[in-house]
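debug: dumping io for the single-chain case to check the tokenizer round-trip. Nothing else runs in this session.
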Amino acid sequence: MKQPSASPRLHPALCVALALGFSANAAMAEKPARPPLDAAASDPATLGWMKGSPPPPNRILRFEDGSYFQFPAMRWSVSNFRQLMPTVNISRGLGAPLPLPAGPAMQTAIDQLSFTPIGASQPMTWEQSLAANYTDGIVILHRGQLVYERYFGVLKADGQHAVMSVTKSFTGTLGAMLVAEGVLDANQTMAHYVPELSKSAFGNATIRQVLDMTTGLKFSEDYADPKAEVWAHASAGNPLPKPKNYTGPRSYYEYLQTVKPQGKHGEAFGYKTVNSDALGWVIARVTGRTVAQLLSERIWSRLGAEQDGYMSVDSTGTPFAGGGLNTGLRDLARFGEMLRNDGAYNGQQIIPKQVVEDIRNGGDKSAFAKADYPLLKGGSYRNMWWVLHNDHGAYSARGVHGQRVYVDPKAEMVIVRFASHPVAGNAANDPTTIPAFDAVANLLMSAPR
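debug: decoded output
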């Protein structure tokens, strides 16, 4: 079989950084030098990655050389990370799964929905948008009922998929829960809880500033710059053995202590993955539980989830709080539905209602505006959630390559999507995603009760 064309080969450390969920800046949102294969041509099941005992040499993917995250191979990897890298389990507990009730069959009606992408002149259908965004799996809940579910490529209903930076919203939710319960003081400094951070830029930042990413940090995620701090972060978190001459940090915790200040805390929103890592350290210190353990105990084991989740870890076993989570699609939908219902689900209050209300109310719009997200104007960021402040009161968890948890309270709708778009930055899929989700919301709002 002929080797499919791919985008230019990336440095293995960058592949690790992207795979583990780092945000992508404008440079990463640029189109490849040549057009990538479309969804059909890059289908990982058709291309046969990792099939055979052993697979053919040109179908073997490895973590160590970065081959696993080259497009189109990464379309297989995002559904199989546990086969390639060290992870820690997130137990669903021992209880029976809570079934997702089936709603009226709406696949045909939704697939035929028509909308016009932002900046385009020609309309497209919802079904066409799935391929345009390299969708691996998508679920839509309406009033808690499953009305739409589709899978593509190698992802199946019983499979798990990387959620990338959607992980940040889980970490932020756990942090906000601890604030609501009085375990954390949102106005207290990070160094108060983790003295090891006192000499870093995080030392005098407050818990609230970290939760809302309004910290003043010298941390560039410009992958085109070989001196950008993202490279040092990726190297520190990479669980593979370090080169003999390596003298830098060897874990996430070690790296966080080296972050230097730039700007003033509290003035502007700046989406930086290290904020989530630092919050994860505080969470672990005050609870005595890692983010993965606390997520299992406080949320995952109470949702009635069908499957365990898992998180990637560094060489010391510390879960990557900024992007290491992998889950089943339906389970992520259960999480979104729980939030839509003010934190209540499976017959219990899992997240305090005040935490959900705080997320929905959003953060500092003026601070967010300084980051200049053209397609998210008027939005804000709160507790590591993206708040749209649209007329539906929608808010979202977002991850590179198209991962999404979208909660629309007015439409009583939750959409969860797994994807493997060849372009990391959400600027590549937002022009299609935003109007597509709005079109479904409008359709569902017209449905009879």
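debug: round-trip ok. Confidence is low (pLDDT under 50) at residues 1-13, 21-31.
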